[in-house]
Amino acid sequence: MTTSTTPGAATLPATRGPLSETVLETLLREQPRADLDFDGLADADPLGDDLQLALHLCYELHYQGLPGVSADWEWDPEVLRLRGALEARFLTALRDNVAGGDDVAGELDNLLVEPIDVEGLSHFLRDQGDWAQMREYFTHRSVYHHKEADPHAWVIPRLRGRAKAALVAVEFDEFGGGRAELMHARLYADLLRAADLPDGYLELIDHVPAAMLAVVNMMSLFGLHRSLRGALCGHFAAAEITTAPSAQRMDQALQRLGAPEACRFFFTEHIEADAVHEQVMRHDVLGDLLEQEPALAADVVFGIQATGFLEGRFGEQVLSRWKAGESSLRLPLG
């Protein structure tokens, strides 16, 4: 058995149902090649806590691993077979909740036009959110930003020419331009510490609901499948286009709340950088990709729309809890 020595999560997450319990119990066995029980898969909510955590656990084998789990599980055929079944349910749910189409330019243009009456999380936090809600937001996004840029790296060997070179240039910035202290994942860990929150890799995952896990799982799903390379590029473009204005609102919110400078720095770093990345992703990555492979237009649109669906769903769930005077977390912060 090969024991994982990577500095991943310090503790294992708590299970959320029969699927995640089966996966975790299996991974904790000493010998890979277990015959996994798929009971409960047909009845599981594809966007619910149990399936999303089970999928997240499977994906984590390809990132920094899980404590006490052998690195040999990463390519175990039975784990991959279960992961494929979970992915199929998740992918179907995503396709069922988007309009589809192949008008990439139209989808990108829509991202640049923000409705006057829109109320998203960054708008709420800028205008009326309190520090407790801001810390909850930091907690939610921690499972995303601990992996920031990692899922997108999977697509690099699947691209060619200018599209590949341009995407690598964006990734270089995400990884701090070669400086470890400026990697965006490191900046988010600094943000968490400044907000008096645990900053360890995935240390806050038990607090985070399925709606946020689904956003991260979508990136892994797209990145780990060559057939979904267009969707990954569409997602990445959508993320870069929408981040700069959102980051500006978050900085305004943090200024209003008198937040520590490390919290603000994470967002100010994104305001200018992602405004540049938007143009690179749109013209150099997607433009060249679709010139090489025009048949991927529908996949690019799917990636953009799926991102909007999951991010919108997450935002609506959080706002509904806050407006009801409730916490948006699964478990309260200590």
Keyword list:
single chain; mainly alpha; 13 helices
Write a structural description.
There is one protein chain. The radius of gyration is 19 Å and the shape is globular. It has 334 residues and is mainly α.
Task: Give the ordered list of helices and strands.
Answer: HHHHHHHHHHHHH
Q: What amount of the residues lies in strands? A: under 5%
The residue ranges in which pLDDT falls below 50 over 5 or more consecutive positions are 1-6
Query: Total strand count, please?
Result: 0
- The pLDDT mean sits at 92
Radius of gyration: 19 Å
Spatial gap, N to C terminus: 36 Å
Secondary structure category:
mainly alpha
Number of helices: 13
Largest sheet entry: none
Coarse morphology: globular
Helix content: 55-70%
Secondary structure topology:
Layout: H1 18-27, H2 49-60, H3 77-96, H4 104-111, H5 121-127, H6 131-145, H7 150-153, H8 161-174, H9 184-194, H10 210-223, H11 229-257, H12 261-292, H13 297-323
Helix pairs in contact: 1-2, 2-3, 2-10, 5-11, 6-9, 6-10, 8-12, 9-12, 10-13, 11-12, 11-13
